């Protein structure tokens, strides 16, 4: 009887492991880990340019947006924190907080959040979000990484931390403006274009 119970438990553990979403892999094929620093670059780039930076929008110095660099900047390091604090692997289709390393000139947290910007008339990624505490109050601080068939991953806003909340889902895509020192990431619901990135 004990043997049957033991084998049943092992089978359940294996089944649970197999049903978990696939891990996100870096440019070297290694699993992305929670709390480890990574840089981001476009998947179709031959060099390390075009990283993500903190960008000003319009003529205001604060708040700061997250955008793609237009020049030679590799961008700062990013860390990912999964919704389950006991999980050490970053997985596709799973809510994560994304944080830019270091500090910023606006004295805000460097946690990504989706927020409507009056200057651009768009929902864009800005800093000042909340880390952890998943639920309705932190809804806009959760993002996902999704695999793109031909190459790399895309950033997506479609959190699962609140089952009854109404929200807009979509990909995050660099949006070129005349007033910014970068291309802020905006919520974009078209399916024909993707901002494909890899991590290194």
TrEMBL record:
Keywords: Signal. The keyword Hydrolase does not apply. It comes from the Eukaryota. The keyword Ligase does not apply. GO terms for molecular function: endopeptidase inhibitor activity. InterPro entries: Kunitz_inhibitor_STI-like_sf, Prot_inh_Kunz-lg. Residues 1-19 form the signal peptide. It holds the Pfam family Kunitz_legume. Belongs to the protease inhibitor I3 (leguminous Kunitz-type inhibitor) family. This is Proteinase inhibitor I3. It comes from Helianthus annuus.
């Amino acid at each position: 009887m004990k043997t049957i119970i033991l084998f049943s438990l092992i089978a359940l553990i294996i089944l649970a492991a197999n049903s978990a979403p696939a891990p996100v892999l870096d440019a070297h094929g290694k699993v992305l880990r929670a709390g480890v620093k990574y840089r981001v670059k476009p998947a179709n780039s031959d060099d390390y340019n075009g990283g993500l930076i903190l960008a000003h929008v319009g003529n205001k110095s604060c708040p700061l947006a997250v955008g793609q660099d237009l020049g030679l900047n590799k961008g700062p390091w990013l860390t990912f924190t999964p919704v389950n604090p006991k999980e050490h692997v970053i997985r596709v289709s799973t809510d994560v907080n994304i944080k830019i390393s270091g500090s910023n000139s606006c004295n805000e947290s460097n946690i990504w959040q989706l927020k409507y910007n009056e200057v651009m008339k768009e929902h864009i990624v800005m800093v000042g979000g909340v880390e952890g505490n998943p639920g309705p109050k932190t809804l806009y601080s959760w993002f996902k990484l999704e695999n793109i068939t031909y190459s790399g991953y895309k950033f997506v806003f479609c959190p699962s931390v609140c089952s009854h909340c109404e929200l807009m889902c979509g990909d995050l895509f660099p949006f070129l403006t005349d007033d910014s020192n970068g291309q802020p990431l905006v919520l974009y619901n078209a399916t024909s274009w993707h901002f494909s990135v890899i991590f290194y």
